[in-house]
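Hey, can you fold this one?
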Amino acid sequence: MGTNSMHVAKTGLNAQQRRMQVIANNLANVNTTGFKRERVNFETLLYQVLRSSGEQTSADTNLTSAFSVGTGVRVVNADKLFSQGSIVSTDNALDLAVDGAGFFQVLLPDGRIGYTRNGTFSRNNEGALTTSSGFVIQPEVVIPEDAQEINVSSDGVVSVQLPGAVEQEEVGQIELAEFQNRNGLQPIGESFYVETTASGEAIIANPLEGSFGKLVQGALESSNVSVVKELVDMIETQRAYEVNSKAISSVDEMLRFISVSYTHLTLPTKRIV
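Sure. Predicted structure:
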């Protein structure tokens, strides 16, 4: 019984430790552009059914409720909470924020398409629009070297002002991706996600089409992490960890008490001659 109780409390320690790790990661990314906070979800482990509901207690009566003992808890997953972050102005023409639904598409080095809310873009030596890491956005948009002014409309049309030209010239169209199940996306680091069978295939459209959001030029989407909320969760996690640790200590004391009592009962009594 004692070792079972210790095991249950240990599962609580492990679960709270995982939750603390997620909270720490949220706080570490409080200033990461486009970062989405995570929330840990718990579930109970299997129950030991010692007496079933309806079990006969006498000739005319039955047990009204079961006697079941839980065996602990575990972390089942960590959901990404894709609520909108604040739009912060940067006055940089190549900074873009998605206000609403949608992800930017980026070609990763391994050939996969990465999806991100981080719109910190720049140009490479060929004029292509890239992320800070140099990954080219998809579909590719090339800005002419002699462009004097760059404009990105709310529906994703990229236009530039060239020397001597009266009107701006359209050079590309930024498209967004969305998914049936955002939480099915697999985060891979560097603010990128990749699609999985759980997320479903990407739905591609221009900004402002259907339920897609709009683009905001000269701005970035800040993290949706609330420091106050994370600190409250941290204190709650710490208290839960301490309680589970205390449970282990209490069970250990109970076992030592039983061991000492059993020793006293089994020791032979010395006869006084």
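Residues 2-82+226-263 form one domain. Let me know if you want another pass with a different chain boundary.
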